Amino acid sequence: MSKFLLRPYFKGLRLLLIACWIIAPSFAIAQLDDAQTGKVVFEVLASEIALQRGEAGLAYSTYMEMARQYKDPRLAQRAMEIGITGGSPELALNAAKTWENLSPSSQTKPKEVLVTLLILSNRWSEAVKPAIALLKQQNPSQRESTLVQLQALLAKAKDESDALRAFYEIASTAKPDIKDPSLLYTYAMSAEKAGHLDVMEKTLREILRKNPNDANSLNALGYSLADRNIKLQEAFALITKAHQLSPKDSFILDSLGWVNFRLGKNALALEQLQQAFKIKPEADIAAHIGEVLWVMGRPAEAEEIWKQGQKLDANNPTLKETLKRLKPDWSNTDQAANGLWDGRFAVKVTGLTDAQNQGGSGGFTLTQEQLKDVLEIRNPVGGAIAKITITPGEAVLERDGQVITAIDADTLVQNTLGLPLPARGLSNWLRGEIRPGSEASVERNAKGQVSSIKQDGWDLFYTWSDKNRLEKLTMTRSSNIGSIDIRLVFDNPNE
């Protein structure tokens, strides 16, 4: 073989060896004998070669085993990088946790990465502890910079309320050092979600002392007062000023209509709220319009606008609270109720290619007890396939004597059974409810029954009996492998 052809080979091998010596833990080399050190170097080199061959899973597992064995954080960091590059956020997160655990407490980089990965995985509550630990190690300027980055990630949160509550816990650590007005405003809004209205009001007034013409703060403080039905004259003055500063802002116009409703000016309030809804249709504005119409003795119109609101965002807190008070048969807020559903399912996957077409059928029983769902899946002749227990934050699958645990029930079912069955939130959907925590759209028929729900990428279509019992549920969605069609027929519809 020509020496010129050998050059790329030796160059690649040399780079791998250099990477090997950089990655190989100095801790291990310093503490181990020559034979053990050679083993570490060999394992690192083998992992990097496996990675180049496309065997990312093997490389990841080896690095994680070595990180635990030699207690070296750099090996876990490398595993995390492999997980990220390989598009496996769960594996990357596990490695990031190990990296942070093995690193000296004085190091901030592992905490920064762990917090970011947790938040990008929408696990805000889990990010609170490491984020607070990080902020305590930073100077005031660094703390504010970190909070600004977290503030930007709030827009990506699937559950805005949960994210804001977590943000409040984190930001409270650095509150005395916060100077950025936008960050202070977000802190005030997060305080409201966390139930600390006194902190919200104090922070908004602090902003307004420095900038009396901050329209968002004027509106937020005025709306909070009006919504609590206190200091209505001050609320009116604050919102009026905000409206003068930003006359085309639909949210400020909604606040103006709401405070006028609180002041008993129903006709004016309705006009302003309807104008706000026309500018920007939002579920919370629909909730306000419906309540004004309800008080004015126009229930049919109220129900119609509430239906529109549920199409926009059935999980909107304002809309849900309004329906709970005024239309409880629509709100379905008892998430802790018990239930039992027994029936049959059929799954059809129409793939992008003929080879991807697949299907299956069988029976199922879903039992709900308080906040625990137990889903048992059977084959067409009644034999047990799997049992899945779902509680908040965890899913456990039992199959053939094996127990597998995960955070996401849907992913667990897909990976273990090969069936795209939606397990997470299924008991809510079978009641004709939306699953809390993610955006949803609801449509109702003329009887007020839920006729369809859109949530988590699924389109659900309901068939009810004359006795208001669910007879059939059709679920469809598009995925990267094609379209998925699931049909559920009930022998025991929550008897």
Summarize the structure.
This protein is an alpha+beta fold and 495 residues long.
Question: What would you say this structure looks like, in words?
Answer:
With 495 residues, the chain is of the alpha+beta class. The chain folds into 3 domains: 3-153, Tetratricopeptide repeat domain (Serine Threonine Protein Phosphatase 5, Tetratricopeptide repeat, Alpha Horseshoe), CATH 1.25.40.10; 160-331, Serine Threonine Protein Phosphatase 5, Tetratricopeptide repeat, CATH 1.25.40; 339-493, outer membrane lipoprotein receptor (LolB), chain A (Clam), CATH 2.50.20. The protein is 56% helix and 18% strand. It has an 11-stranded antiparallel beta sheet with strand order 6-5-4-3-2-1-11-10-9-8-7. The chain is flat, with a radius of gyration of 28 Å.
Determine and state the CATH class of the largest domain.
Mainly Alpha
Order of adjacent strands in the largest pleated sheet: 6-5-4-3-2-1-11-10-9-8-7
Number of DSSP strand runs: 11
- What is the count of DSSP helices, taking H or I runs of 4+ residues? 22
Helical/strand content category: alpha+beta
List keywords for this structure.
495 residues, alpha+beta, Serine Threonine Protein Phosphatase 5, Tetratricopeptide repeat, outer membrane lipoprotein receptor (LolB), chain A, 22 helices, 56% helix
Topology:
Elements: H1 3-23, H2 26-31, H3 34-52, H4 56-70, H5 73-85, H6 89-102, H7 109-120, H8 124-136, H9 140-153, H10 160-172, H11 181-193, H12 197-210, H13 215-227, H14 232-245, H15 250-262, H16 266-279, H17 283-295, H18 299-313, H19 317-326, H20 328-331, E1 339-351, E2 358-369, E3 372-378, E4 384-391, E5 394-399, E6 402-406, H21 409-417, H22 426-430, E7 440-444, E8 450-455, E9 458-464, E10 470-479, E11 482-493
Antiparallel strand pairs: 1-2, 1-11, 2-3, 3-4, 4-5, 5-6, 7-8, 8-9, 9-10, 10-11
